[in-house]
């Protein structure tokens, strides 16, 4: 008893007891707390999927099938990912009003919370691109010059060199990009909606996508100064050629008529 009592009175006894207590507390937290958090996240995700399935049944199943397998009126949604849903529904393209060569952008009828629920349900059908974070699509700090090179190489053929849009075949068109949310531009590159090819990270890195977004933001900014004067809408050689044909050639014809009239008058005199 005396030996045990002496050990209890040892100067380091209190420190040892405190360390043991802290170790036990930390161990118990590590065992139970993460499990509770993971369980809460799993429950929240499950609820989002259930709510998304209800929204899907009402607004999407008639065209895409009850399980997203697709029908003659709409493609399969298995594996398209949450990013495609956020883009299509967030821009109002889906649900579509009527079939046609291309579904136009229109007013969105869903809240962002409902879009997230729809995206969660579609993502549960098959793995696909996730909704990008603001850090991924924010143009802040991106390389505008490199973005311009990438855009002119990969996108200008359809969208025009400043993103003003352009006509395609069979009633299709490349939409203007001057007022599109950076998140939706990123998602369009990631998922390739409608006639557009997709540019996954294996083809075009996140950094390069940000560069393109920064370029579009720069050339379509209200502060952008046109060094050549009137930009004719930024529509490129078609508009400029039409302007030259109507006004330039028209002026030459007018001058030719004036010269001929003066010559004829001079001969009569």
From TrEMBL:
Which sites bind heme c 2?
155, 158-159
Post-translationally, this protein is described as follows, namely:
Binds 2 heme c groups covalently per subunit.
Q: Name one GO molecular function term.
A: iron ion binding
Please name one Pfam family that this protein belongs to. Answer: Cytochrom_C
Q: Which reaction does it catalyse?
A: a quinol + 2 Fe(III)-[cytochrome c](out) = a quinone + 2 Fe(II)-[cytochrome c](out) + 2 H(+)(out)
According to its UniProt record, this protein's enzyme class is translocase
Q: What is its EC number?
A: 7.1.1.8
Q: Where in the cell is it found?
A: Cell membrane
Keywords per UniProt: Cell membrane, Electron transport, Heme, Iron, Membrane, Metal-binding, Repeat, Respiratory chain, Translocase, Transmembrane, Transmembrane helix, Transport
Please name the PROSITE patterns in this protein's record: CYTC (PS51007), PROKAR_LIPOPROTEIN (PS51257)
Q: Where are the transmembrane segments?
A: 242-261
Entry membrane topology = Multi-pass membrane protein
Q: Which residues bind heme c 1?
A: 60, 63-64
Q: Which domain of life is it from?
A: Bacteria
> GO CC terms on record?
plasma membrane
Domain (Cytochrome c) ranges: 47-126, 142-220
Under the subunit heading, UniProt states: The cytochrome bc1 complex is composed of a cytochrome b (QcrB), the Rieske iron-sulfur protein (QcrA) and a diheme cytochrome c (QcrC) subunit.
Task: From the Swiss-Prot or TrEMBL record, give the protein name.
Answer: Cytochrome bc1 complex cytochrome c subunit
């Amino acid at each position: 008893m005396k030996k045990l009592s002496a050990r209890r009175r040892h100067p380091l006894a209190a420190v040892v007891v405190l360390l043991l207590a802290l170790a036990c507390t930390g161990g118990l937290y590590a065992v139970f707390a993460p499990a509770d958090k993971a369980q809460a996240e799993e429950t929240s995700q499950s609820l989002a999927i259930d709510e998304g399935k209800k929204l899907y049944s009402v607004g999407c199943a008639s065209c895409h099938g009850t399980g997203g397998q697709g029908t003659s009126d709409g493609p399969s949604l298995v594996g398209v990912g949450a990013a495609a849903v956020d883009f299509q529904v967030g821009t109002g393209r889906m649900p579509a009003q009527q079939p046609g060569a291309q579904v136009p952008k229109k007013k969105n009828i869903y809240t962002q919370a409902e879009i997230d629920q729809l995206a969660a349900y579609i993502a549960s059908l098959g793995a696909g691109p996730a909704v990008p974070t603001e850090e991924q699509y924010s143009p802040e700090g991106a390389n505008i010059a490199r973005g311009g090179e990438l855009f002119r190489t990969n996108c200008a053929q359809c969208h025009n060199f400043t993103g003003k849009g352009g006509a395609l075949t069979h009633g299709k068109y490349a939409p203007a990009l001057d007022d599109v949310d950076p998140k939706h531009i990123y998602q369009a590159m990631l998922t390739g909606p409608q006639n557009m090819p997709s540019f996954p990270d294996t083809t075009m890195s996140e950094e390069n996508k940000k560069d393109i977004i920064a370029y579009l933001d720069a050339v379509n900014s209200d502060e952008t100064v046109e060094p050549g004067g009137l930009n004719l809408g930024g529509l490129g050689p078609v508009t400029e050629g039409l302007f030259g044909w109507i006004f330039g050639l028209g002026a030459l014809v007018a001058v030719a008529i004036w010269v001929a009239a003066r010559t004829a008058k001079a001969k009569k005199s």
